[in-house]
TrEMBL record:
<dbReference type="GO" id="GO:0043590">
    <property type="term" value="C:bacterial nucleoid"/>
</dbReference>
<dbReference type="GO" id="GO:0006310">
    <property type="term" value="P:DNA recombination"/>
</dbReference>
<feature type="domain" description="DNA replication/recombination mediator RecO N-terminal">
    <location>
        <begin position="1"/>
        <end position="68"/>
    </location>
</feature>
<dbReference type="InterPro" id="IPR003717">
    <property type="entry name" value="RecO"/>
</dbReference>
<dbReference type="Pfam" id="PF02565">
    <property type="entry name" value="RecO_C"/>
</dbReference>
<dbReference type="InterPro" id="IPR012340">
    <property type="entry name" value="NA-bd_OB-fold"/>
</dbReference>
<keyword id="KW-0233">DNA recombination</keyword>
<dbReference type="Pfam" id="PF11967">
    <property type="entry name" value="RecO_N"/>
</dbReference>
<dbReference type="InterPro" id="IPR042242">
    <property type="entry name" value="RecO_C"/>
</dbReference>
<keyword id="KW-0227">DNA damage</keyword>
<dbReference type="GO" id="GO:0006302">
    <property type="term" value="P:double-strand break repair"/>
</dbReference>
<comment type="function">
    <text>Involved in DNA repair and RecF pathway recombination.</text>
</comment>
<comment type="similarity">
    <text>Belongs to the RecO family.</text>
</comment>
<keyword id="KW-0234">DNA repair</keyword>
<protein>
    <recommendedName>
        <fullName>DNA repair protein RecO</fullName>
    </recommendedName>
</protein>
<dbReference type="InterPro" id="IPR022572">
    <property type="entry name" value="DNA_rep/recomb_RecO_N"/>
</dbReference>
<dbReference type="InterPro" id="IPR037278">
    <property type="entry name" value="ARFGAP/RecO"/>
</dbReference>
């Protein structure tokens, strides 16, 4: 028998019996973990509210030796809140749908339970923090998270140099199958010709250039989101269910305020 603790983000919950839940978390040291939280659906539960999606928690697990290698599920015996990101996310539809897509993406990129995925964990924590604080538009936070998740899992797209021959960009064509921007000589069937503004935006989101991303025009935001979605679906081999619910309202770039002169 074994007790172990870890920090984690709650990805989703499932009902189990009359009062229990199965909690799926992405943890710092143990990767994706599924555990049983007993009695958390009862109104008198002391820590049920802490184990809701978007919550960043410090959790203690109890497991028998066989459960540590994938047979059965460990028990979640204690939980302390590190950051309740859900409070700043669930009250806003755009943030909520973007956050749900982020949770699903993190789970999909961590297929093997118990296998550490520290970069994906840190990326998710940072993304939820940014989303909850409202520092940037939800569309942009989601696309930045998706691009960086692809990158840390070995699928980083190229938005300037040719993905096949390395020719310095900017290059005119973009191919999901080829890995991003491609030159005229490396162009493959199915390549598209995105605008330079959309490629500049995606490059900025991948590298964290938020000044460029926040000032981008709405047409480039919509075009860039389409490219990100297609690229993600290609590498995951099937789409994300939550992406269909992401807020579709057009994004309007923020304009600098003009102070009135007395």
């Amino acid at each position: 028998m074994s007790l172990f603790r870890d920090d984690g983000v709650v990805l989703r919950t499932q009902k189990l019996g009359e009062a229990d839940r199965i909690i799926t978390l992405l943890t710092r040291g143990h990767g994706r973990v599924r555990a049983v939280a007993r009695g958390v659906r009862r109104t008198k539960s002391k820590f049920g509210a802490r184990l809701e999606p978007f919550s960043h928690v410090d959790v203690q697990f109890f497991a028998r030796g066989s459960e540590l290698v994938g047979r059965g599920l460990p028990l979640c015996t204690q939980s302390e809140t590190i950051a309740p990101y859900g409070g700043g996310i669930v009250s806003d539809y755009a943030r909520y749908t973007a956050g749900t897509a982020m949770l699903e993406t993190a789970e999909r990129f961590t297929d093997h339970e118990g296998e550490p995925a520290v970069q994906q964990y840190l990326l998710l924590v940072g993304g939820l923090r940014t989303l909850a604080r409202g520092e940037h538009e939800p569309h942009l936070v989601l696309d930045a998270f998706l691009l960086r998740s692809l990158a840390v899992n070995g699928y980083a797209p190229s938005f300037s140099a040719c993905a096949k021959c390395g020719m310095a960009g900017p290059n005119r064509f973009f191919s999901v199958a080829a890995g991003g921007s491609v030159c005229g000589d490396c162009r493959v069937p199915g390549s598209v010709v995105p605008s330079a503004g959309a490629l500049e935006l995606l490059g900025a989101l991948l590298t964290g250039d938020w000044a460029t991303a926040d000032a981008c025009e709405s047409r480039y935001v919509r075009e860039g989101s389409g490219l990100v979605s297609a690229y993600l679906h290609w590498h995951l081999e099937r789409g994300l269910r939550s992406l269909r619910y992401v807020e579709k309202q057009p994004y309007v770039a923020k304009q600098p305020s003009i102070e009135k002169q007395p």
